[in-house]
Design goal:
Blueprint: H1 7-16, H2 21-45, H3 49-75, H4 78-110, H5 114-179
Family: Belongs to the CCDC90 family.
Keywords: Coiled coil, Membrane, Mitochondrion, Transmembrane, Transmembrane helix
Protein name: MCUR1 regulator
């Protein structure tokens, strides 16, 4: 294991502050043992890359099994389909549990990469803001198009109304001339 401090420098510092060489070395040795024990405890809780790959392979094999089961279900009768569906639900719940367990383990490791995740979240928010702005623009464009279309229909209705009124007046004048 690599130590993240200079043990010799610590021994020298302790000697300068009144400890003997033997006392200083014993103190530093005790500190190194404590750090090793703490690191062992931390490493016990961590997931290794090999373990993660094994879990991924297990999940992939479960997915392949589910695909095979789906093909069998398509060819079987309705009652068999129902029972197979229940089996798949149970398998999916087990896979879900395994995935949740793996996610929990990975989350513990990802706490060390918190700053990276924060920047990803900021980028995601920026993308969402851009998407929202584009959606607002599309909505505004559609509303403007609808208003234009409404005005066009309104003008058409006015034309038809005016034509109808003039037609009625013409017919009325025609009858008026006939009667007079």
């Amino acid at each position: 294991r690599r130590l993240f401090f200079d043990t010799h420098a610590l021994v020298c510092l302790l000697e300068e502050n009144g400890f003997t060489t033997q006392q200083s070395e014993v103190i530093v040795s005790a500190l190194v043992k404590i750090m090793d024990t703490n690191l062992d405890m931390i490493y016990k809780d961590m997931v290794t890359k090999v373990q993660q790959e094994i879990a991924l392979q297990q999940v992939m094999s479960h997915i392949a099994g589910v695909k095979k089961d789906m093909i069998i279900l398509e060819k079987s009768e309705f009652s068999a389909l129902r029972s197979e569906n229940e089996k798949i639900k149970l398998e999916l719940q087990q896979i879900k549990k395994q995935v949740i367990d793996e996610i929990t383990k990975v989350r513990a490791d990802n706490k060390l990469n918190l700053n990276l995740e924060k920047s990803r979240v900021k980028e995601l928010h920026a993308q969402q803001d851009r998407a929202l702005t584009q959606t607002d623009r599309k909505i505004d464009t559609e509303v403007a198009d609808l208003k234009t279309m409404l005005e066009s229909h309104k003008l058409d209705n006015i034309k038809y109304l005016a034509g109808s009124v003039f037609t009625c007046l013409t017919v009325a004048l025609g009858f008026y001339r006939l009667w007079i």
